Amino acid sequence: MAKVLFIVSGATYWVLKDGTRYATGYWAEEFANPYKAITDAGHEVVVATPGGVTPNVDMMSLRPAMAGGEKGALELEAVIRDAEVMRRPLKLSDVRLEDYDAVYLPGGHGPMADLAFDADAGRLLTAQLASGRPLAIVCHAPAAMLATRIHGESPFKGWKVTGFANEEEEGVGLASRATWLLEDELKDKVGVEYSRGETWKPYMVEDRNLVTGQNPASAAVLGKRLLEILG
């Protein structure tokens, strides 16, 4: 049995260009699908957040229109409700990476508000990348790579990565309202070799021990790949 660390945003809002607080958190299917796949396979999941705060689900991600219908929304709700680990997260500052076989970061706009600027998240991602053990990151969660920079340099520079595309941010109506866009910052400030697939379709990039997914639909694919790697 493997032990997988989920690094989850603790944010409840994201400040937009005009100062508006946009309600957010983690995206339901990006937590629920990999969590269910990993725990159903008999592995253990431990959740950690900045300061050990209880993660907040982005309510928009539980709307039937966003969850593939009423049934999909209810299934996601049930997984989250039963996930006791979400109610007693560790503090990122207390995490001992050597205790885990893999690390996974779900997205939602939450990571744009906290993980992108969190020194502990940056330290853990840097160490996990260097360890050679699996590191899986989906959607907006690659924002945490920004926190790995020391004097402007990130260990992720030159790595093949995907993440939520500018076109997808435009699709949800936030591109023009955001203070920064993930695709741009990954390319310009982290220096990754960014690629993307079709909007809203599953797209995964694997480079050595790093596996990234573009959008919510990619989370299930990432969870499946993580299971294969864990054996």
From TrEMBL:
InterPro entries named among the record's database cross-references: Class_I_gatase-like (IPR029062), DJ-1/PfpI (IPR002818), Prot/Nucl_acid_deglycase (IPR050325)
Keywords: Lyase, Stress response
Protein origin, superkingdom: Bacteria
All copies of domain DJ-1/PfpI, residue ranges: 29-228
SUPFAM superfamilies named among the record's database cross-references: Class I glutamine amidotransferase-like (SSF52317)
Similarity field: Belongs to the peptidase C56 family. HSP31-like subfamily.
UniProt-recorded name of the protein: Dimethylallyltransferase
Organism: Streptomyces camponoticapitis
